[in-house]
Amino acid sequence: MAPIVQSSQPWVEKYRPKQVKDVAHQDEVVRVLTNTLETGSCPHMLFYGPPGTGKTTTALAIAHQLFGPEIYKSRVLELNASDDRGINVVRTKIKDFAAVAVGTSQHKSGYPCPPYKIIVLDEADSMTEDAQNALRRTMETYTKVTRFIFICNYISRIIEPLASRCAKFRFKPLSEEIMSSRILYICKEEGLNLDSEALSTLSSISQGDLRRAITYLQSAARLFGSSISSKDLISVSGVIPEEVVQALLAACKSGNFDLANKEVNNFIAEGYPVSQMLIQLFEAIVETDDISDEQKARISKKLGEADKCLVDGADEYLQLLDVASNTIRACCNMPKEFSYEG
Amino acid sequence: MLWVDKYRPKTLDHITVHEEIAQNLKKLVTEQDCPHLLFYGPPGSGKKTLIMALLRQMFGVSAEKVKVENRTWKVDAGSRSIDIELTTLSSVNHIELSPGDAGFQDRYIVQEIIKEMAKNRPIDTKGKKGFKVLVLNEVDKLSREAQHSLRRTMEKYSSYCRLILCCNSSSRVTEAIRSRCLNVRINAPSEEQIVRTLEFIGKKEGLQLPSDFAARIAEKSNRNLRRAILSLETCRVQQYPFSSKQTIPPMDWEEYITEIATDIMKEQSPKRLFQVRGKLYELLINCIPPEIILKRLLYELLRKLDAELKLEVCHWAAYYEHRMRLGQKAIFHIEAFVAKFMSIYKGFLIATFG
Ligand SMILES: Nc1ncnc2c1ncn2[C@@H]1O[C@H](COP(=O)(O)OP(=O)(O)OP(=O)(O)O)[C@@H](O)[C@H]1O
Ligand SMILES: Nc1ncnc2c1ncn2[C@@H]1O[C@H](COP(=O)(O)OP(=O)(O)OP(=O)(O)O)[C@@H](O)[C@H]1O
Ligand SMILES: [Mg+2]
Ligand SMILES: [Mg+2]
Questions:
Q1: Residue A6 has pLDDT above 70, yes or no
Q2: CA of B229 relative to ligand 2 center, distance in Å
Q3: Between 20 and 30 A from B35 (CA), which of A112, B62, B157, B335?
Q4: Which of A13, A313, A326 sits opposite B155 (nearest CB)?
Q5: Pairing label, strands B132-136, B94-97
Q6: CATH code of the domain covering residue B334
Q7: Is the complex ipTM higher than 0.90?
Q8: Contact yes or no for A271 and B77 at CB 8 A
Q9: Domain total for chain B?
């Protein structure tokens, strides 16, 4: 590749492992695939887990390591949610690809080149059920000459008949130690200085998502230079400052609706994501010791409901206001059902 | 040209309200490898202004030479092919579009059109940057499917295509997309910052702007800078020289909702509900977004209520707005809210006054 292209890659791509053995923290799948590289045998597979844990990376790495650059195109079909994968595509495109026989493989390339093709269906949870059903047949028909790798965040969105045909691998959120060691490696490569406090902050705010950690790291490096502090990382991460969360909670505890409404308005004007606020409110509620367990339960229940509403696309201001008013009621021990007797 | 456009700062160095963010963005693009960006924040806070200034920082003045194109794209939607109309704004190095405009067909825009744009390498090879930029507006309006469709595109072509996403409500952007971007929060300017911007414009226009008048405009703007600048210009047309006590005209639709709220407080009956329905239709026909109507109505009603009732009423506002999202006809849900309110309020009146 031309050097200009190399240098203009964001770090998440630059530091995407090219080999299966470099994928961190997902030992089980790495073990199975290492075996595949030696023996050539490979089951259908299903990778699932939260964002930024190495699913796409692993699938692309194994495909490249099996076939090498020369025959990659003829042996690997990668379809993701950016491709139309309606039922028609499944019927035609995948079939066409699977149906063409693999040439008698010559090993001169130095790659294993096992006698099958790989079809990677990334972001498979966004495929319709119909399309998934159509795939069942295809999988069976070409089972000798193709291996499927399904990738998704939510395994529940994959229909059972497909899932049960695959070896399933759960990609775990990266642990803080593993995350730290990967980050330290990148810091060394890029000549950055990260003290231990900053390092642990970065691991904890990224919540097991290594892609996020790398993006924060790069952003902080560009904004604040090569010595990065914990504060710098928090400021690029969008985490809501603790005092903002406490201010809303205090307003609710005071029982004064107008005050709470003002805090909510202010919060929205500051542009913070309400979904993030719900997470942090939850943590604050659990930790606070001046309200009873029952009150906590009452508040938390509403947090859950509001979170669901947000996922459905409900208005952020109204949801947070509802949470605030419910919290006021809980803190002041008002009855759950509204009654006119004040 | 309207003042909101005339006085939009063009370069990062001229950005006054979000100075620190502007300076940070400048540093961010000094290298070739800047990540994708997601700008989020309330309306009229300055997101677009920052994005335009950022493009100019990346590509120089050529970023300002934009042409507007209205194109119809034929896309293959499985068994049939459909036409999608789309307006794009583009310079040699960037393309801007609002994929949410296609409504339920937005997935095709992402899968066909955006991917195509991302795939094509930059045309201008002698340009400073090795990449081009796609600016996508209102990504919070994209369906989940469309957002999923964007994920791999953001990774696959990232060596020569950067995305700048812009939205109001980042909670509506999926985790997977947020995890692929540097998230840049643009807070609404404070009232003081708004006053300073108004004073700056006043000076440029050679106006005498009394400081308490500017402060009142800022206060009424609800920290929306665009709205404040528009108000200033309207006031200028209505009466100049300014006087401190000059009225700042509210928006027509807001006045109308104040009226509706008064109607509701005066009488709670099926007949009144029917009258209110007529007025709500009027607002919807004039393209006031339903959630804005509901929120404004809540605001007006809350001003007139006792504390206890407030807690109850805001719950129902949230409840019906959520249902509105899931449903199809907004009027049903706004009306349901009004009916619910009437019933609560009437019950309260009877319990209190017999
Ligand atoms: N286990 C890992 N080991 C090393 N690097 C990783 C790992 N997981 C993620 N990364 C880093 O994060 C980036 C994103 O990872 P990847 O694309 O594999 O995520 P994903 O699991 O497919 O996420 P999504 O569900 O959002 O598609 C990679 O480019 C790499 O830099
Ligand atoms: N830093 C600034 N200094 C001075 N004026 C500004 C600044 N930022 C924005 N403005 C003014 O405020 C107006 C609104 O800003 P802009 O269009 O960037 O808002 P926005 O965040 O994109 O809003 P929306 O979400 O409603 O699209 C602009 O027309 C411009 O006149
Ligand atoms: Mg992936
Ligand atoms: Mg805008």
A1: no
A2: 10
A3: B62
A4: A13
A5: parallel
A6: 1.20.272.10
A7: yes
A8: no
A9: 3
